[in-house]
Amino acid sequence: MKSKTAFITGATSGIGKATAEIFAKNKINLILCGRRSERLLELKNILGKLTNVTTLQFDVSNKEAVVKAIDSLPSAFKKIDILINNAGNAHGLSSIQDGSIEDWDAMLDINVKGLLYVSKAIMPQMVKRNNGFIVNIGSIAGKEVYPNGNVYCASKYAVNALNKAMRIDLNKHNIRVAAIHPGAVETEFSEVRFKGDTEKAKNVYAGYKALQAMDIAEIIYFVVTRPAHVNIEDLIVYPTAQASATILNKE
Ligand code: NDP
Ligand code: 8X3
């Protein structure tokens, strides 16, 4: 396979799925990851018409599963040029004293440790080749703490710190590292945060035009296609109606 290969976590929905779509249109080979196998299969069938696609079904927070999945990649997909660390979610939105410990564990295990497990399995080959690109999807929640955001914000502050750490430690290995921090993007994010309460989730995006997953995917594609000497390290992207994590110009 001549063109570059990208490994995308959280490709079954939202930002990760849109990134897979734009990468496929631009002939980037794809390793698509997520837990929902039926969605992975559907994506493989559709995007496989545009580029080479393989899928890996695993939970990023399960370190043995991460290693096993990545070890199982077919030889044509073993060389990974671009890693998009996108899998993540929020569980709950409540004051810290009322938060659920299970929700805290899930957010820290997925958003922080999951990102580390996947990166740990892929960084060594990039170091060896003295080449690679890692894009970490942070959040405005990793730049500003907002009321009731507590542990989700902490997890995204950690992503922000890890992005900087990767940039520093991988710099001498010619590996580009970039973080993109979106504000409100209309995806399944709020459905997950509110545990399937679709009305509550819909309300998050009501009264203004939220970012769409493809808005972020186009930016990711732009970032990874800059010339070799250019690295866009840290980028905040808001919908026009949003001025901060908490200031939103709703109708
Ligand atoms: P979605 O809920 O639409 O997508 C989340 C993706 O992550 C899904 O593909 C899901 O796949 C995957 N995922 C979740 N948990 C796991 C897990 N344990 N193991 C493997 N994969 C997992 O949300 P978004 O597209 O909005 O979210 C993508 C990223 O963007 C997240 O990191 C989120 O924090 C961040 N973000 C989102 C914003 C927003 O407003 N939407 C704003 C700022 C940042 P599956 O369920 O199949 O495993
Ligand atoms: C997702 C955006 O504002 O809900 O990271 O934290 S927000």
UniProtKB/TrEMBL annotation:
GO MF: oxidoreductase activity, acting on the CH-OH group of donors, NAD or NADP as acceptor
Naturally occurring in which organism (per UniProt): Gramella jeungdoensis
Keyword Disulfide bond: no
Assigned keywords, A-Z: Oxidoreductase
PANTHER family per the UniProt record, alphabetical: ALCOHOL DEHYDROGENASE (PTHR42901:SF1)
Protein name: SDR family NAD(P)-dependent oxidoreductase
Transmembrane portions of the chain: none
Family matches, as PROSITE patterns: ADH_SHORT
Annotated Gene3D superfamilies: NAD(P)-binding Rossmann-like Domain
One Pfam entry name: adh_short
Family to which this protein belongs: Belongs to the short-chain dehydrogenases/reductases (SDR) family.
